[in-house]
Design goal:
It contains eight helices and seven strands. With 227 residues, it is an alpha/beta fold. The protein has one domain (12-111, 120-223): Vaccinia Virus protein VP39 (Rossmann fold). The longest helix has 15 residues, at 23-37. Bound molecules: S-adenosylmethionine (SAM).
């Protein structure tokens, strides 16, 4: 079935407001969403995002940094180098959580910013990750274009994108219920069809380096073409 996303109709400020919740509830809720809506696992996410850290890394929509902290532990376990990381998020409450979590870490910096209007120079970053968030952006095309802009030529973007529920019943129906609730609440803007989000990533100026559909997610590694 081909579906054009209509989106939740929420603005970026309403979305930021919807993300105002207690950290413990955010993490518990996140576990259920990951398992039943994304039909994904933490291991999958670590293997998707963990390797994509260049010397200057941008973590787009970092949230409270729960996943980022696990990814950085995974990197230490794999003996991968420490890098300079800038995290941005539009919800100030989320960002405060990340700042608190990573206080005293000189290689991690956090800034309030909209993914669609990044306050960074063109070609500033080697890599960018968007974990569990593209489908929360009301202006997804502008965000993809701006992330492409701030990457160096040859820089890579890793992202997972929530797809419309697939697979067998009753799992599909459960995922649909969670998505409907997320859109009403404002923590989800819209799920995507794989072809639709792939086309948007390419239209933003990326080449697809690697891609797979796993559970209800499209996992992609995209590259800004070398100059
Ligand atoms: C599901 S959370 C994911 C957080 C984190 N990346 C993770 O995996 O735990 C989605 C995040 O996207 C952020 N977000 C939504 N719209 C945004 C925008 N336009 N610019 C920046 N961040 C945004 C929300 O504030 C929230 O922190």
């Amino acid at each position: 079935m081909d579906r054009t996303p209509t989106g939740s109709g929420k603005t970026r400020d309403e979305i930021a407001e919807a993300y105002k919740s207690e950290p413990w509830w955010y993490d518990v809720r996140g576990f259920f969403i990951l398992t039943f809506a994304y039909n994904s696992t933490l291991g999958k996410q670590l293997r998707l995002f963990g390797p994509n850290f260049g010397p200057r890394h941008l973590e787009v929509a970092c949230g409270t940094g729960t996943l980022l902290e696990l990814v950085l532990r995974w990197r230490r376990w794999k003996k991968l180098p420490d890098v300079d990381i800038t995290g941005i998020d539009y919800a100030e409450s989320m960002l405060r959580g990340a700042m608190h979590r990573f206080r005293g870490k000189p290689n991690l910096h956090f800034q309030h910013a909209d993914a669609a209007a990044l306050p960074f120079d063109t070609g500033h970053f080697d890599t960018a990750n968007i974990a569990n968030s593209i489908h929360c952006f009301p202006a997804v095309d502008a965000a993809l274009r701006d992330i492409q802009r701030v990457l160096k030529p040859g820089g890579t973007l890793a992202a997972n994108v929530l797809l419309y529920p697939r697979g067998i019943q009753p799992l599909r129906a459960i995922a649909q219920r969670i998505n409907d609730w997320g859109m009403r609440k404002g923590i989800l803007y819209t799920p995507y069809e794989r072809e639709d989000i792939r086309r948007r990533i390419v239209a933003a100026g990326f080449e697809i380096a690697r891609e797979e559909v796993s559970g209800n997610c499209y996992n992609v590694l995209a590259r800004k073409p070398a100059a």
